[in-house]
Amino acid sequence: MRTNSMIMSLNSPVIENLTTDLAQTSLEMDDFTRPAVACFVEAMYTGEVDKLEKDIFEDVNKMAHVFDVSWLTKRCLKFYKSDIMNFEDDSYEDILFACEIASRAHYHLKQSKLVNCFVKTIAARGVDKGIFVTRYLAGFASVPKRKIDMALMIARDSLDIIGNCLMAYLSFVLECKSFDENSLYLLQKLNTQNFRNTFPVKFKQLTNFVVSLSLQSDCAEETAIVENFVKDNVQANESINDLKEKQESAVKTLESKDTYNYGADYCNIDLNAETENLTHKTSATNTDDPQLGWIMPISSSSSSLSEDGFLLRLKTTGYEREKKIRFDFILSGVGGSEHRRCFIMECRTLDLWRYYISRYGSPLESASWPYLENVPSVQVKHWTITKTSVNLTVVCNGVTVLNFNFLSKIMNSKADERQFWFNWSKSCVSIKFEATFEKSLLLEKRR
User: Which of 376, 384, 389, 395 shows the shortest CA–CA distance to 424?
Assistant: First the structure.
């Protein structure tokens, strides 16, 4: 494509240097599409961007930056705001398109204005950052690092969103066995001070979980990254080895005080607490068995929780057939009629139990409920129910019979259902239970 070097030089100091000082007579533009180059050249001649379209925007914007055409970079920013950020019905595809343009501009051009514009616009339009970031980071193992950086910039002060995604990935994809390159990169990039100050409970959960994984690794690089991540959350003189000794001591303390095997679940052992404070506490006064700290529940009563880290322990005796137990979780920050989520278990036979997870209100017909898996066929059953920001887990006599992942539901649900499942991941402030077999049910609440 032939152009007038004088006209091009008037707009671009870079082109002026190439043609005047270095005496170049041609420029290679193979990295850009022909329509984008035509639009760029016309802009140099006319001072207008009439040919600028969404599909060539990135190339034109990149040329404006590479050749330092200041007025064109401003026009590109204006076009980004007016056209690319003009989402139709807040479509995920349209939002993703705008997000990726901003992400690549930030990564390749060190241009932050598009990112700032994107973040402000989605906030003003009420786009749920939690749902978007969860979908954006799907397939985390192969996600490029620029997308991780972009997710952090979108989340900003809502770092609990990133923490939830990381815990879900480490738990369900890597199966709590190790770290990979992207998970370690995210740990290094997280603003731990901001995270700890804004979401102290979630930060502590993530810290304990990350430490427990690192104890299984012999990789010095992994240990160093984890130690750097947790350094503000543990005593300055503690290393990962110190924490490992504390964890082993804590498990021995629990096992000596209670024959029930809790395991080393990150919600149940606090690595920052003193060993003698690691035993499970209950707020009940009428204990059925003081040694175990079990309580007899009062149907339809509510129990307040100080943080989203609690343990429900149930005991059933084999005489509950055709009977149900229901838990209503009151969740923070949901508001209005959407502030409760319901979980029900129903006994059909000794080893057949089914469940239902829904909004607060009348559940669907129980005939359509799915069944818990591999329920032990014994009379006396000890159940542990744990709700975290990632999942709802039910363990019966040491066997995991349900591991319900809220984040996978968010990613795989229709648009009008995602908010419902995202709300399940919020912190639980209190719990209410109803049981038709009250006398054989015991409950323990952990603060």
Answer: 389
Q: What is the DSSP string of 336-401?
A: GGGSEEEEEEEE-SSS-EEEEEEESSPPPPGGGPPBPSS----SSEEEEEEE-SSEEEEEETTEEE
The continuous run of DSSP H or E covering 434 comes out as strand 428-435
- Tens digits of residue pLDDT in 425-442: 777 777 777 766 554 555
| pLDDT reported for residue 442 | 56
Burial class (CB in 10 A: 0-12, 13-18, 19+), 113: middle
CB within 8 A of 139, min separation 6: which ones?
A: none
Q: Which helix (H) or strand (E) holds 436?
A: none
Question: What residues contact 7, with CB distance under 8 A and at least 6 apart?
Answer: 44, 45
Q: 3-state DSSP call for residue 157? A: coil
Contacts of 315 (CB under 8 A, 6+ apart): 294, 380, 381, 382, 383, 440, 441, 442
Predicted structure pTM score: 0.61
pLDDT tens per residue, range 408-419: 766 666 666 667
Who wins on pLDDT, 345 or 216? 345
Among residues 282, 221, 285, 209, which one has the least CA distance to residue 247? 209
**207 vs 201: CA distance, rounded Å:** 10
What end-to-end distance do the CA atoms of the chain give, in Å? 72
| Residue 171 pLDDT level (bands cut at 50, 70, 90) | confident
Report how far residue 75's alpha carbon sits from residue 256's, in angstroms, rounded to the nearest whole number: 70
Sorting pLDDT into bands at 50, 70 and 90, what band is 300?
low
Contacts of 326 (CB under 8 A, 6+ apart): 342, 343, 344, 433, 434, 435
Task: Check residue 295 and give its pLDDT.
Answer: 52
Burial of 307 (0-12, 13-18, 19+ CB in 10 A): middle
Residue labelled with tokens 């818990």: 372
Closest listed residue to residue 206, CA positions, set 187, 179, 228, 220: 187
- Maximum C-alpha span of the chain: 93
In this structure, are residues 63 and 15 in contact, taking their beta carbons and an 8 Å threshold? no
Q: Which of 167, 178, 236 is nearest to 207 (CA)?
A: 167
| Helix (H/G/I), strand (E/B), else coil: 138 | coil
Q: Where are the alpha helices (DSSP H) in 231-270?
A: 240-257
